[in-house]
C-alpha cells in the first residue's frame, strides 16, 4: 500500500527571516525588528520624563523633534475659506451641493495645520466672570481669522454677550449645575455634535464628569481647567490640553484669571509669533443706548450730568459681584455720605457764574469759566461745586424704599439688572463710584472716570492690575481689610474730581 504524501503547496513554510541591517557606527549586523525595538525603547525612556499628563497613553512617546508634522501646509495664520456658490433656484439661499451628499469644506491641510473654523466656549460663573472672558474671545478671533465663536453660559452670563460682537450664538446652559436635568444635558450634547466644533474651551474646573461631557461633544480639541486636587483624577485622559489653577476657585485669580488659557491660545507657531493679550473692550448698540437714555431721563437725570453709584448691599443675583471677592458691597449708610458730595444744585452755580461774567471778573470761554468756578467752589469748601447728581443703581425693586428712606426721597434711582444697560448708563455718565462689581470693569473698558472701592490693597491689585496705566481710575482701599471700614473722607475727596459737561453756552467776550 502506497503511503500518501503531502503536496508541496500544503507543506508549511518556515517564517521569512527579516533582512539583516548593518549599523553604520559600530559595524554590527542586527535584524530590523531588534533595531526598531531598541530604538523604540530608548525613545520611551528618553521621553517618559517629559510627560506632563500621567493619564495619557503610556506607550505614546510624544512628538518627534526631527519630524515636521506641518510640512508645506504651514505658512502663518489660517486663511478664511472661500464661500461656495449659492443655489440660484433656491429661495432660501442654500449652497449648491449635490443632492444626498454631506458637504465637507475642510481640507486635509486644514486638519494637519490645526486650523479652527468653529469654536465653542463653555464659561462658568456669572456676569463678572463672563465680562473678564472677553479678551479670550478676542484672542480666538485674532489667532484664527474667520473663526465662528459660540458661547455656552448661565442665564445671567448670557446677558453679557450682547456687548460682544465677536460671538455668533450664546446658549443658556449652566455648567456649574452639579445635577442638571437629563433632558437639558443630552440636548446640549446634541447641540455640540450638530455644530461640528474644531475647538471647545471650558473655564469650569473639570473632574472626570465634566471632562467626559466635553469629550462627548465630538470636538477635535478639548481644552479646559481641572481641579488642583485629587478631584481631577481621570480628567486629563479626555482633554487635549488642561490647565491647573492654584486654588479651587478660579475667580481668585482676579482680572488675570484666564491667563493660562490666553497664553495657550496665543502660543507661537510656525510663521506666527506669540500673540499679545488684548485689553478688555465692550461694544454697545445704538438701539440699546437709546432705550437706556429714555430710561434714565424718566429717572430725572440728564446725559453727562450724573454719577453712577453701584455696589449697594443686596442679596439679589443681579448685584454683579465677583466670586473671588465676597466683601464687595457697601451698606446704604455709607453711600448716603458719599452722595452728599456729589449732589448738585444747578441754579446756584449758574447764578454765580453769570454774576462773575456780568461783573467782568471772567472774560474767557465757557470751559475755562466753568473750570475756574469749580476750583473756587472747592476752595470755599462747597459741596455743590461738582455740578452732578448721584444716580443709584439698584439690583431689585425692594431696595427703592430703603434708598429713599436713608439717602433721601429726592434721590435719583434706576432699576437695572442687565450688564448691557449698565454699560450704556456708564457710557452716558460723567463717571462711576462703585465697589468691586462689574461696573468697575465696564467703566474702565469704556474709558470712563472711576472711583473703585476695595476691601484691601491686595484685592485692588488683583482685580485692577492695570490701574497704574489708567489715570482716570482712582482706587481707594480699606486699611483694615474690611470694606465697611473704608475711609469715607478719601472717597469724598476723590469724587470731587468728577467734572460735569457744561450744558450751557455763553458768548465769548
Automatic annotation (TrEMBL):
GO CC annotation: chloroplast; NAD(P)H dehydrogenase complex (plastoquinone)
Superkingdom of the source species: Eukaryota
Region (Disordered): 53-93
GO biological process: photosynthetic electron transport in photosystem I
Name the UniProt record assigns to this protein: Photosynthetic NDH subunit of subcomplex B 1, chloroplastic
PANTHER family, per the entry: PHOTOSYNTHETIC NDH SUBUNIT OF SUBCOMPLEX B 1, CHLOROPLASTIC
Coiled-coil zones: none
Listed Acidic residues bias regions: 58-67
Bias type Basic and acidic residues, positions: 77-86
Residues in the signal sequence: none
